[in-house]
Amino acid sequence: MAKTKVKFICQSCGYESPKWMGKCPGCGEWNTMTEEISKPASSRRAVFAHSSQTLQKPSPITSIETAQEPRIFTNSEEFNRVLGSGIVKGSLVLIGGDPGIGKSTLLLQVSSQLADNGNDVLYISGEESVKQTKLRADRLGVKSDKLLVLSETDLSFISKAIEEVNPSFVVVDSIQTVFHSEISSAPGSVSQVRESTAELMRIAKTKGVAIFIVGHVTKEGSIAGPRILEHMVDTVLYFEGERHHTYRILRAVKNRFGSTNEMGIFEMKESGLEEVENPSEIFLEERSKGAAGSTVVASMEGTRSVLVEIQALISPTSFGNPRRMATGIDHNRVPLLMAVLEKRVGLLLQNQDAYLKVAGGVKLDEPAIDLAIAVSIASSFKDAPPKPTDVIIGEVGLTGEVRRVSRIEQRVMEAAKLGFKRAIIPEANIGGWNPPADIEIVGVKNVAEALQKTLGG
Fold it and tell me: Which has the closest alpha carbon to 155: 166, 163, 147?
């Protein structure tokens, strides 16, 4: 018999070591190395022998025929948009999010919609019994005979159930509770998660079944376990939002069948999650008009333009080093733009604390929001509110210039739709498109000119 080898694997990054160490050399985390028994060499040779029998011959890339991947649509336009216009057969989709954010609720609603459209759906819960799942289904109004529920964590029984039922869609909630009987480590470990995901990927590709798996997240907000889990699946979705607020954001961070910048917005209600058709109105409904430090920017989230409010609070510091804090935007961008305002415009901000926030819990990372941030900081510092009907768009360079942005026409049209009367945009973006008739377009070359147009100086 082949000897089994003992190795220690970091549960945070997947680093392997022949001996136990208190601190992982890979990620620097403490007490994350756990003992796992590797597969015998004979088992690995058997796997390689089996794979060699089914080895395909290489083909010229010019001789390969391509076809558009067929999509299956749900009744949720937001869910379809994030996946790239629907669900692809044979795809493996990973959904992560904080505990209690609504991952199971979302997938149960999607399963109900697919079942109502005549598709066989198998919902496998490893954390709840079938009675607990039924209680949630009653609350959501889920009633379909084509939605089958199973409470199981053994991967071999899950594979047999998929073989017998032959569903079109499978939901596994969650991957950290599933275990492979031939692996000695505990469920949720690196080896278990890797092997379980690989087996589910094989089932999805060979049978053409779309499989959704739920992944737990760590306190840092990333999916628990090594990054290999995200590399193995076709699509990675994050379900974000504050537990004490009703709005939830479904965001794609990896998608082999569509864009990775799409965003879907839902509202959590007693009857489940409901789509938000116009998110710009939601993000601006509680805006204080005429307040200093408040600006509105049109940001692109995939193919959708969303208007959000950026708030800034500038106050004299009480410490030796001024504080720079930001929520919803990269905190490194705040001191950079403050340095541009101080050097190119002449605002004395080196002894001021700066607090910035994107209202509504949205996270913005595109450069087109630079000009709105700079105007918010200057507005709060001067205590001069901009016009509430202005929308500000533009990227700011280190020399103070305002650079062009993409999809300016779509951004301005969204602003005009919500009643904004003036758009401050880069001068390089003027021309080549037809702006709406009920909104004034003002082009600016640099930050100083933008402040002159918005704050009067």
Answer: 163
